[in-house]
Write a structure and sequence with these properties.
14% strand, globular
Amino acid sequence: MKEKGIIFDFNGTLFWDSQKHYDAWVETSRKLRGTPFNDYEMVHHMFGRKNSEIIAYAIGREPSKEEAEQIGREKEIIYLDMCKKDPENTKFADGVEEFLDYLCENNIPHTIATMSEKINVDFYIDVFNLAKWFDLDKIVYSDGTIPGKPAPDIYEIAAKKIGIAPKDCIVFEDAISGIEAAKSAGIKRIIAVASKEPVEFYKSIDCVTNVITDFRNIQNIL
């Protein structure tokens, strides 16, 4: 493969949990403003963004730090409870483990860049045994200092952590904001994962180089 490094978004990409986040935000937005987010709002104002930005959109103003933390924590408790009650589907997408084995066996630098917060990342580290395939110190997540996608920062930081220039990385993404972030970071190859939206949804996005529906035999297109 021409590119030298791999960066994965996590939610909706390695772990197909978009519906759980969707449902948790529907419940949370209903509490915050009396009506749930609709499908358009989910795609353009929720997926790939950090909690404080989603909350600001929902309530129509910037929340205080304490307010954002409290609402975000309540939403994540709802989401994590859904995951814990559904262990059968709290797993990697098809082909992910085999692909991660391939990356490790071939010493291809790789990491995760997710807008999930620490409470969720700690859960993923435990449930998915991420230490088997990833250097945990190189995982980039929403720690309160990184602008949310579509800002490019998270992918720039992830590329730096694995020691590869953004232009020499492949990014796997499912969210529009994440795809925009990768493009703005200078990622030349963006592979969209059609975990919730149809394949055709991504084919119209000019910076998407490939669209996949699972990770089986993915190394054949790299």
